[in-house]
Write a structure and sequence with these properties.
The structure is a single chain. By secondary structure, this protein is mainly β. It has one helix and 13 strands. It starts with a helix and ends with a strand. Keywords: Signal.
């Protein structure tokens, strides 16, 4: 029986190409992006509570706030905040200062000396708060030494960690965890914190 060496050579050339095509076709297609719905969210375990806040934060005058990035203050400040749904009057706020959002590597960890630096060389630093100003008794100063209602934590002093995992289309996504505390020393441990909020740029 004669062996057709020409056909074997062609098959040898085609086999690697067919193998590459087979592997590429068999790969899972990329997961579709999660659509941005409503106002986004900030959520997580705060002590014994699991909170999901989706309402835009507003001032007493009704003006929306806590939804922006301003490159001109605090070395570049990212601020996102979401309110609870009535009757829950609390709100969660996340702030990161000294952040150059356009050049921020993804992912970025904002925690102590590990944090990225802005264009001026300053370390990014942030904080997470669970605030309940409506519950502060009359005559008690908000964030004063007798305030047991407003919880705060810092990425530099209290060991809180904030991670920014995406900034595509100015939809800021990430996670947070650590401890937040009141001025009187009450502590909540935060776990599985997540945020996904579309920000407005201020110039």
């Amino acid at each position: 029986m004669k062996i057709n060496m020409k056909k074997i050579s062609i098959l040898n050339l085609l086999f690697p190409l067919l193998l590459v095509l087979f592997i590429s076709c068999s790969k899972d297609s990329p997961e579709p992006e999660e659509p941005y719905i409503g106002n986004g969210y900030i959520k997580g375990n705060f002590g014994s509570e699991y909170l999901t806040y989706t309402e835009k934060a507003v001032t007493t005058g009704g003006e929306a706030w806590g939804n922006s990035y301003d490159p001109n203050i605090n070395g570049g400040e990212l601020h996102i905040s979401r309110d609870g749904t009535s009757p829950d009057q609390r709100h969660i706020s996340i702030e990161i200062r000294n952040i150059d959002l356009d050049n921020l590597p993804i992912p970025s960890v904002v925690y102590g000396e590990q944090a990225p630096r802005n264009k001026n060389g300053f370390l990014a630093a942030g904080g997470v708060g669970l605030y309940d100003p409506a519950s502060v008794p009359q005559g008690t100063s908000h964030f004063g030494p007798e305030d047991s209602y407003n919880y705060m934590g810092s990425t530099y002093e209290e060991g809180l960690t904030v991670r920014v995992t995406s900034k595509k289309n100015d939809i800021i996504e990430g996670t947070f965890e650590g401890e937040i505390k009141t001025p009187t020393g009450l502590v909540k441990t935060v776990t599985n914190g997540e945020f996904r909020v579309k920000i407005i740029r201020k110039e």
